[in-house]
Amino acid sequence: MQSWDDFQLLLALNSAHTLRGAAKLLGINHTTVARRLHSLNQRYPIAVCTTTQNKLVFSELGEQLLTTAKAMQAQLQSQLPAIQSTIKQAKQQVNLSLPPAILQFVLMDVLSEFQALYPDILLNINTTYALSDLDSSEADVVVRASEQLDDYLVGHRLCPISLGYFMHRDYLNNRSEKDITWIVAHSQSRPAWLAETPFPNASVNLVIEDLVLRHQAAENGLGMIRGAHYIAQHFPQLVEFAPSSDSFADLWVLTHPNKQSLPNVKKLIQFLLTVMRNKQSLINQKVKSS
């Protein structure tokens, strides 16, 4: 059997268990599948696969060919990330994954510099707080805040994200102690960090999962938050009423070992490292501005 189409036919028949199911998987009609299977069976002294009581049955020869087809499929799957990376490079495309707030408040104003430097590169940005899977080529480069990373990833550490406690500048005016409340990200339990604040016993009255919208809610006078300096400075009515002893996590620029030498990946990583190191005093107020 020399045609990859024949191996695909066997894989589809094995997965679907019926001719009609295989036709659906292959995107062709039932008659074409039946004709191709008949042609395949005619090429060997014994049938490769037959239909018995509406069930597909592989002969011993068919099982051997199916094993070969599965091995070929596995080999192709293992090579797909590298193949996809090569295609992206040929198309002058590079995929970046990063948190929405980092794009909005740290990188948005400098993206034009990357476009000016590399006008032929299509920068495809996915904003998410989840860690994109570099193994499966969900992204070529990832910017992520993390305390622990997989050892095999190629990482460039930037700095921790500094935090503070914020409220609207007039939040305490004409408010009794029982009316002073917190806004937090999750409702499962009271955050441990409340204990270090000037208001450790204030109630939690609002839960907002989105990081930026928590800052917006605090500026609207809906409560107090633990927030990030690099975000809070964009909300002029917010004031920091107490420092946080902890930082959130270290900010990293990451890629997969198989991609670190790709030209477009190298260009993007170098650009990100340069501009973000220039903004370290924005991201972490404990870092002195150079």
Automatic annotation (TrEMBL):
GO terms for biological process, alphabetical: DNA-templated transcription
Residues spanning the membrane: none
Domain of life: Bacteria
A Pfam family it matches: LysR_substrate
Domain LysR substrate-binding: 90-276
Gene Ontology MF terms: DNA-binding transcription factor activity; sequence-specific DNA binding
PANTHER family hit by this protein: HTH-TYPE TRANSCRIPTIONAL REGULATOR, TRANSCRIPTIONAL REGULATORY PROTEIN
Family the entry assigns: Belongs to the LysR transcriptional regulatory family.
Name the record gives this protein: LysR family transcriptional regulator
Source species of the chain: Pseudoalteromonas amylolytica
